[in-house]
Amino acid sequence: MSFKDLNFLFERAQSGKVMKIVIAAAEDGEVLEAVKQASSEGIVDAVLVGDPNKISEVAKSRNIDVSSFEVIPATNDEEAAMKAVQAVSSGKGDLLMKGFIKTSTLLKAVLNKEWGLRTGNLLSHLFLFEVPRLGKVIGLTDGGLNTYPGLQEKVAIVNNAVSCYHALGVDTPKVAALAAVEVVNPDMPCTLDAAALVQMNRRNQIKGCIIDGPLALDNALSVEAAKHKGIVSEVAGSPDILLVPDIEAGNLLGKVILFMANGAGAGVVLGAKVPVVLTSRGDTARTKALSIALGAVLAKN
Prior knowledge:
By secondary structure, the chain is α/β, with parallel strands linked by helices. The chain is built from eleven helices and eleven strands. Strands 3-2-1-4-11-10-5-6-9-7-8 form an eleven-stranded mixed sheet, with helices on both faces. The mean pLDDT is about 95.
């Protein structure tokens, strides 16, 4: 199963009960636009954590009515992150969202041992991208959280992404372990990791997916490019998930899709007790709304 675009997220998120989303540092116009859209479509109700006056000012400047949303006052980012996470961990919310706040500040609260949202699993970021040229949705992980993951971390990153795809109804997602080349090179550790992941998958140490790699981006996405290089693969040309070697590769590739290829995206952090909707502060309201929908779908599962 593959998805042509990300609109399926809105359709999935509208079924079942309305989810409660808690937003840390909600003084952000694009976030409020996204929440307004998701709320109007019956996907979420919201709890806004932050400076009430600033939230009101931003909402007014965007002509957004936030009177139906609960507001929890917070005087700074650290307090906003703490109160938002505590609200979710106490059962007041089904999912968490990053507002106008640094990712590190929010995740520090998420990982708090006393009242955070830890599960013991590695946290990782997954972005689903709608790419017009490809005509399908493709996942990218991890371009937002883990900087230079080793093999053990990559296993956890793959498992998180595969679990997400299972929740979306894809029984056996295909994972392309990316590198700059499609051959194993002892001088390029990411190619060794890719080869190890393939073997672990074949021996059922990583379940529920098909992994191949190392694959360069061209032969991961193009059947013709793979054939030209003599690559025979179930994954090449039709991957569901791109596993990048490090955060720099993932960040660059993701922003190329969004800002140079006219793509759209939906991003969440996986591995916590609840989905954490996490996008860049520069992302559009549509990307943030799609991310809320993705988080809501995962929260239902």
